[in-house]
Specification:
Blueprint (H helix, E strand, L loop, with lengths): L1 E3 L93 H9 L15 E3 L34 E3 L16 E5 L4 E2 L2 E5 L5 E2 L5 E2 L32 H4 L5
Parallel strand pairs: 1-2, 3-4
Antiparallel strand pairs: 5-6, 7-8
């Protein structure tokens, strides 16, 4: 297999799709634009992940396969852990929803151009380095923002903070909760058409969990950022840490 190094593309570069919200065509998820990749014979962009017919299926609870055509990773990942984290993360359910689809390319175990009847040969070679697209290439998500946990306190999750403003008291949060994380009814900063709950996934637990899609929009359509910012497909801008402050009350 050959290796593909993908870095986030600055919106200042004059390429269609690099501007936040401008769509998948020409974006960092348009595989046809990368040297060495087996391009789709009909020039399709969506085909690297999706198919209208003969899609992959699964009987595994919590699997999310939206007309999926790309080979899935089978890796078991080590979850994030910290002495100060209030949520519980189970490796068994952590990758439910969109996150598993993201990791099918980003962990480097499956070639990015493997789709339909095409057996690809180009994998992400970027490791967990700054500005690179490789994530958990050693099967560890222990140094990445946690995913796969039940988000809202109303469902037994961690987020117990107000929609706006500060908590009414600085007294310690209840066990397993954090009142300095906004609840799921809060809106994304500078993207107020979306609420946090709109980007959570209801998996086998029957409760909404945080996934990669809680912060990122893979199709480069619902994301926003400041002019000339690097397009990380974020649902709130990096400017002034708005993506972080959408949830974290700091």
């Amino acid at each position: 297999m050959s290796a593909l190094g993908i870095v986030a593309v600055s919106s200042s570069i004059a390429i269609a799709g690099t501007t936040p919200g401008s769509g998948v065509l020409g974006s960092i998820h348009d595989m046809n634009k990368y040297a060495g990749v087996t391009v789709d014979t009909q020039g399709r962009v969506c085909a690297f992940c999706h198919t209208p017919h003969h899609a992959l299926t699964s009987t595994t609870a919590g699997d999310y396969l939206p007309l999926w055509s790309h080979t899935l990773a089978t890796t078991t990942y080590q979850p994030y852990a910290s002495a100060t984290i209030d949520s519980t993360i189970s490796a068994a359910t952590m990758m439910e929803g969109p996150s598993k689809l993201c990791m099918s390319c980003h962990d480097g175990s499956v070639a990015v151009d493997t789709h339909y009847a095409t057996t690809g040969a180009v994998t992400l070679n970027a490791k967990d380095g700054w500005g690179q697209a490789g994530i958990a290439q050693t099967s560890s998500l222990s140094n990445d923002h946690p995913i796969g946990f039940v988000f809202d306190a109303s469902e037994g999750g961690v987020a117990a903070g107000p929609v706006t403003g500060d908590p009414s008291t600085v007294a310690p949060s209840d066990a397993g909760q954090d009142k300095w994380i906004r609840n799921k009814e809060a809106t994304y900063l500078s993207n107020t058409a979306l609420k946090i709950k709109d980007r959570l996934y209801t998996g086998s637990l029957g409760k909404q969990i945080m996934t990669c899609a809680t912060c990122h929009d893979v199709h480069n359509k619902k994301n926003v950022d400041a002019a000339n910012a690097t397009n990380y497909l974020l649902l709130s801008p990096n400017l002034d840490s708005q993506i972080c402050l959408t949830c974290h009350i700091k």
